[in-house]
Amino acid sequence: MDSLVALHPELILLDAQETTVIRNNRWRCDHGWDVDLDDGSSNYHIYNNLFLNGGLKFREGFFRKAENNIMINNSFHPHVWFRNSGDVFTRNIIMRAYAPIGMNDWGSTIDHNFFPDRSALEKARLNGTDKNSLEGDPLFVDPAKGDFTVRPNSPALQTGFKNFDMFSFGVQKPSLKAIALQPAIPVLQITTATTSSDQPIDFSGDA
Length: 207
Description:
mainly beta, three-stranded parallel β-sheet, 3 helices, 9% helix, 22% strand
């Protein structure tokens, strides 16, 4: 694909001419990634989303931009990117180190993100990304009640991250909201200097 696209860049967007926008959602998948752009999915703009369990995956593909999202108890999963993909990952709050597979090219811009601790940030910088990213406690307002807005003194705001509405996901009519299935809000799993940021996550739910 690298050599083919270098000769014929017009092929990239033949089946994705309009940008697919994923925004203002709350996602929870217990059997994989919350949002999984797999096998060449291209031309996406993903912003202002709350990922409650599985994180976000980009595998192969071109021109995907993820910004201003929050990934609870998980991270960004970049897999096997093509050369000069144009991918962007910026101003996101993550709670684990990146989980790359087969990465030789890191897209256009991977920077200004907020990591849970110094070790996760330094691990990213070894790949030449996140020069201006920060780390620490994002200071969520009330995570037990699903409010992952960050407080006014949150260091995450220094990355350019901006709060978005946590209480307008899904249906809004009161009668429908009362019967709508709501995702389980996860308990925060805080990493520390003595806690590995690479602990396995059981997506299947099996014992």
